[in-house]
Structure formats: structure tokens, C-alpha cells
Design goal:
The structure holds two protein chains of two kinds. By secondary structure, chain A is mainly beta. Chain A contains one helix and 26 strands. Chain A has one domain: TolB, C-terminal domain (Neuraminidase, 6 Propeller). Chain A starts with a helix and ends with a strand. About 2% of the residues of chain A have low confidence. By secondary structure, chain B is an all-alpha fold. Helices cover 81% and strands 0% of the residues of chain B. The radius of gyration of chain B is 21 Å and the shape is globular. The N terminus of chain B is likely disordered. The chains are: A mainly beta, B mainly alpha. At the A-B interface, helix 1, strand 8 and strand 9 of A face helix 3, helix 4, helix 7, helix 8 and helix 11 of B.
Chain lengths: 314, 410
Amino acid sequence: MKKLVLALTGTALLVAAAVTYTVSARHGAADAEPAAQLTLAPGRLLFRDTATGRVGAVPLGDPQAKRQLGDLKCDRFAVAKQTAACLAVKPGTLPAVTEVRVLDDHLAVRHTETLPGTPSRARVSPDGKRVYWTLFVTGDSYAQTGFSTRAGLYEADTGQLVKTIEELPVFVGGNRYFAADANYWGITFAPDGNRFYATLGSKGTTYLVEADYARYRGKTLRENVECPSLSPDGKRVAFKKKVADGVWRLAVLELGTLEETALAESRSVDDQALWQDDGTILYGLDNAVWAVPADGSGTPRKLVADAASPAVTG
Amino acid sequence: MYIAAGRTSDLAAGTDRAPALKRVSANVVALGAVSLVTDVSSEMVTAVLPLYLVLGLGLNPLQFGLLDGLYAGATAVVRVLGGHLADRWRRLKAVAGFGYGLSAVCKLGLVAAGSSVAAIGVVLAADRTGKGLRTGPRDALISLSSEPETLGRSFGVHRAMDTVGAFLGPLVAMAVLALSLGSYPSVFVTSFCVAAIAVLLLALFVRDRPGAVDRAAVSFRAAAGLLRTRDFRRVALWAALLGLVTVGDSFVYLVLQRRWEIAATYFPLLPLGTAGVYLVLAVPLGKLADRAGRWPVFLGGHAALVVALVLLCGPQAGLWLAVVALGLHGVFYAATDGVLMAAAGPLIPAGLRATGMAVVQTGQAVARMLSSVLFGLAWTLWDLRPAVLVAAVCLAAVVLAAAFVKPVRP
């Protein structure tokens, strides 16, 4: 009897402690700061505020200025022209389901796609017509806790959805490549809205794939190029180069000559780089947004603290 | 996942389970309750950990997968150590309790570790160590608390209760995430509180090694001597050999998904299908094992897996075949997991029970890990379907050999 009382009391206390902690976390998460109306007006640096998960903005010319926070919450964020993309895990879904939201220039939702997986990368094509993303999907891989990636895109003008580009016919050295484990990540489109690049991973090797969207076929250019990001002039690709397991360095590849330049950032970067302009590259690292010259010179410079997923309006 | 609610209320109402619960010792029910509550706690964390690491901390998930596999291997060694210490100190409950306690504290460790990947690695390793330490002594306590002729039923009741916890864990995690507006630390703190309840239940209601204590010398030599007893050696070796040709769960689900094009959203529900069947059949098959012999039921479970694999790759692709295959996968678990412990128990002297059980489990676990690697290789070389068929043939061959070549006395 005494044991029963002890057990019930102890259980009640522990449950009360758990509920108290959980409910108080709810108040901590409630945002104190009122939401500002953010727009895609030129000359702004938008990002994910890592403390609140909300989209924040600062002037690109003065990134140290006090940030404005909108009411939109995103795990990944991207913009181009008058289109923005917001990837957010749908609350209360286990395993995770991601909402891909296509937004207008006042960050109002124009379209939503709900897809399985957790957000990894998001981008908008330079013409603002396509939104593309990479999601991590569990259970696809044969390692018990393995992840695989799934890259897809949405045509904002026609409303067509490509859930995964896995079916893209790819040629390696002139021969059609087939593999059950083909995985894509990190799509990037050229200003013409047709030529695009992505990373293909298969059998332990990663390839840079150059593809034609209208003809829907691609070919590999070279190995060990992950998360490509095309420069505004369309001639270079910034990417992360694997140097060891779980260690990547930023580099820039000249597409005409396939010549590679290492950037001045010496730390490991696991992000899809973003071109601020033809000379500067932005990326997220250690909960901050950094900038580094695209020609390998200079040193990395911290632009905004407590931020990730940078996006620049032009 | 939502089958859980229905099943649990069945259990509470005790429609068909009440007699079984009454006829197993109170100590087994207490251990079952401890496992149930602990599983709620650990499955909560398992469900949110990938999300937390990838979204919360921005970790690369491929790294995480690597990390995870590594620790699974380390657990195997700790398991034998836990069993041996429990036997040597004659403190099964204390060693099991330490294991449960260590895992509980690790849930708070996840909060304390913050965003340091190294610290999270250490905490996860400690968590697995706790799990490894407690398994041998706990199963030894179950077998020492039961009449030898009802061991199958006892393990069945324990495993069924354990599975209920696994069903509830993700649901509790979802509720906490919804209530806290997506706060992962809240999930970890709640998980700690739930685990602490389990430790409390263990401390209050589980009795340590009931009955007379066997004063046999417990040394590494005595433990090694176990493998010289013919029947125990055969059980351990056959279990390991069968483990080596057993196709891992994730592969089974993958074949199901590929063949029947199950949307990725529903993919995680497949393990719940297996668990549901396991939950329902654990007690009946345990009882059958007590009557018809544990070894035949254990081998029969593997035969069910062979049939499931053949169905998965056979010429027909009706949806009902997928359901039957998933059901057979559940039968495989219900007929093997607890039943193996029930078969091994009586072959081990009481003083060495925890060590002996840990040895059998470790052999099986290591073999299954190896099998995953081999199967992954076969898959890459030959593609999925031929690999599964070859695995099914190998498994059938080993089952037949285990039944006829060097059989274990029932």
C-alpha cells in the first residue's frame, strides 16, 4: 500500500514537471516582437532568424542595422524577382512533412505543396518562374537511420509540379546512366530558365549534372561537386567540395574551362552558396550569414548573426 | 500508429489477456510495466531525433546515420559485461536499474549538450550503454521469476507490454510538440520524466532474483564454460547463424515500398504493422511455445519470415499479399524474440542466467548487423529482388539444418 502511494505520488510529480516544462516552453516560443510587413523591394538581405524561425530582413548596404522580423516562419527561404519560396516543416507531423510555400512580393502565400521529408535546400530561378528544393527523406535508404534526398520543382507560371527529378535521363561520358540509388540535390537554374545544374549522388560518387529542362535530359560534367549555385552571369558555379567524410570546402568552378578556385573560407560549409552579385558569395555557417569574395581572395566576413538561409533581392 | 489507442484499451479492459496476466508472476508484470514506460520514453526521442539534429541543429543527416550504426555495435559488447556483472555481484535488479537510470539521465543530457555534435555523440553512446547493460539482467529476472514450464508465456507478456510502449512513444512526442509549439527540449525533458517514472516503478515493484540464490562460482571461466554445455552452445550458435541470414527490417519495408509503391508519407507506418501483429501474437505464441516446444516455435517463426520474403518477391503483386507478408513479419517477431529467451533460460544455471542470456542476444545482434552489411552489398551487386530471394533460400536452408542436423532438445 505504501509502495502504491509512493509510486502514484512520484508519477504525479514527474508528470506535473513534464507538463509544466512543456507549457512554459510554449510561452517562451510565443513571439514578443510584433511582425513587420516585409517586401521583396530591391537591396534587401532576407534570412531565417534562427532564434525565432521567422523571416528577417536588413538593408544589404547596412547588414548590422536592426533586423525587421516578419510573421512568416520558414526553415529554408529563397527569393528571385517577385517570387519567394518558404520551406517549413508542417507542425505536429512525425515523420516530418514539409510545406513548400510559393510567395509573392509581399510574402503572401500564392501556392502550397505538401511533400514528405525535412527541408534541406530552397531556391527560386533567376526569372522568378520556378521554385525548386531538396528534402531529406527517411526510410528510402537501406541504412536503418539513413536519409536520402529528393529534389523537386514547381513552375509558378504554369502550376506544374515535378515531385522529384530522379527520372531525369542522365548520360555519363556519352552512355545513359542507370542506378536504383540515384539521388539528386541542390538544383540551380540559369537566367534563361531552361539550363540547370544539380548534384547526382550514386554508389558513393557525386557528379555535377548539366541538364536541359525543355528536352529533359542531362549529362555529367565532373565529379565531387555538391550543391551547385550558378553565378548571375551564368558562367561559374559555386559549390561545396567534399574533402573528407562530413567536411566540405567552398569553391567556384569556371564552366568554360572546368577550372576550380578554392574560396578563402577555411571552415567546413554545408550549405548551398548564394551569389550576392558576380563577385560575392553568401552562405550560412554556425548560425550566421557570411560573405566571401568569389575569386578566392580576401577573408570571410560575418554579415548577420543568428541567421541562416540568406536571400538577396535585386 | 493510431492502432495503438485501440490495442491499449483492449489490454486495459483485459478481454483476452487478463487470464495470461494473472497466470504470470507479479514480478514479470512489474518488469513489463517498467519496459512499457521506458519504451514510451525512448521511442519519443527516437521519433524526433532526426528532425532535431537536421532542422534544429543543422547537422548533416548522413553523418548522423554513420554515428548511429557505430553505437549499435558498441552495445553488443556492453551487454555481455552487464550480464556478467549482474551475475557476479548477484544484483540483477541493481545492474538493470543502473542501466535504466543511465538512459533516463541521458535524456536530460540531450538538452545540456545543446548544439555540440561531440556532446550529443557522447550522450547517445551513454544512452545505448544503458540499454545494453540492462537487457541481460532484465531477461534473467523474467526467467528466474517464472515457472520453467510457463517461460514462453512470461516472455510473451513482457514483450507485448514493451511493444505497447513503442506504439505510444511517437504519439506522446507529437502531443508534446503540439503543446509546446515545436520545442524539442520539451520532448527530451518529458522523455526524462517518463523514464524516471519507469525507474521508480522498478525500484518499488520489482523484486531482485526471487527464490534461492545459487551459490555457484561466477567467474569469466564459468561463463565461458557455458558454451561447453551442448544444448546452450547449440542455441547460441543456431541463433547467431539464423541472425546472419535474417533480412533486416528496413530491407523488408523497402521491398514493400518499392513493389507496392507506398507513398513515403505512409512508409513509417509499416513498422507499426509488424509491431501490431507482434503485440497481438506475443502471448499466444509464447503459450504455444510452452506446450509445443520453444525451439520448434522459434524455427517456425523463421519459416514465417521465409514465406514472407518469397511473397514479397513472388510473381503475384496483389495488395493482400503485401498485407499477408507484413503480418508474417509480425509472426516472425512474436515467435522468435521472447521465445528465444524462453528457450535459452532453462539451459543456463540460475547463477549465470544474466550472462548466458546476454551471450545469446549478443551473438544474434552481431550476426544481424553483419547480415545487414552483407545484404546491402548483395543489393548493390544484384539488385533488390534477387538479393531477397537468395537471402530467403539461405534462411530456409539454415532453418532446415537447425531442425534436423544438430537439433536442440525441446
